[in-house]
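Practice problem. Given the sequence and the SMILES for pyridoxal-5'-phosphate, write out the predicted structure.
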Amino acid sequence: MALEDSFWLDISLGNFRANVAQARSQLAGSARLMVAVKSDAYGHGGAAIAEAAVSAGADALAVLDIPTGLALRETLPDTPMLAWLISPHDDFLAASAAQLTLGISHSWQLDAIARQCEGVTTTVHLKIDTGLHRNGCLLERWPALVTKARELERAGLIDVEGIWSHLADTSLEEDKRSLERFHDALEVAHAAGLSPTIHHIAASAAAKDLPESRLDMVRIGIIVFGVSPFDERSADELGFAPVMALRATITEVNEKSATITVGMGFAHGLMPLPPSTGWVSWNGQRLSLQSVEPHHCVLGWPETDSPAVGDVVTLFGDPAERSPRAEDWAAWSRTIGDEVISAMSPSVPRRYLSD
Ligand SMILES: Cc1ncc(COP(=O)(O)O)c(C=O)c1O
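Answer key:
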């Protein structure tokens, strides 16, 4: 962080590592722990978080796409990494040579591996769509996909190490139905001659509330960033602390209009809010949020003391400062905490705190 930065994100690697350890004991149980860092670790910055996840005991990483996996491979040569957002323009040979595990949803992806990766065995996890409809092979195409996968496996082109899915987490009942569909899909795969050893479907919410969904591995994202996947239970109650705290310095005070300005706004990734919604903290006191503009926010005057230009306010993520949580911003803007933290623009400097 440059001294002149007027807003920044404090990223607590200490809290993150503690959350990963908590996920291992509370959410994984005897299953392996895969931490989902996706492309930029929900706005926290991919490389630092990926390394911290592994040092805190993650067995594997879910890395979204092949370019992200290739970039992380340089610093994490041995960590199993699953990339699942596969594009026709990807370099499958580079992915295979880097020993990335590919999450396969479509038969054209197997064709691309067969074409590009002759002479090497690519590790794959086949993904079945169990109801989320975001990615994964549709149930009606599954028999053809597993048959083709078995042919490629016999030819030594792939190793079907895993079968997986992702849950909608809209309700426990829906997740249970998806889990049943998953078990049915496994039977179809076994009947085709496949014998994968890693089955995985649960992310943060199901790993907590539906222990039978943990199977061989859980893929945990949002909760290790200290943001709750549930509306009615906070991350704190679940034993997870925020990792990202957003701070900004006061750039203007106007006693006449009783307003304070900080120089960051929705152009930097803050959620736009209706007028007079929410609050931020200053020296442990609440300052009302009067408006979020493109490049600044207008705050109300505190009940006691007078703030000064250069004072720091915390917009979210620091319980010791009695600031709001990312989840509060999510409630104010009718979205989910994932969006509040992931939306932080790369123009907001990240300061990594290692304790
Ligand atoms: C495929 C996949 N696995 C795991 C996760 C992590 O989910 P969560 O953040 O709910 O733990 C996600 C997040 O959307 C995902 O898309």
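Check your answer against the key. The chain has a mean pLDDT of 96.
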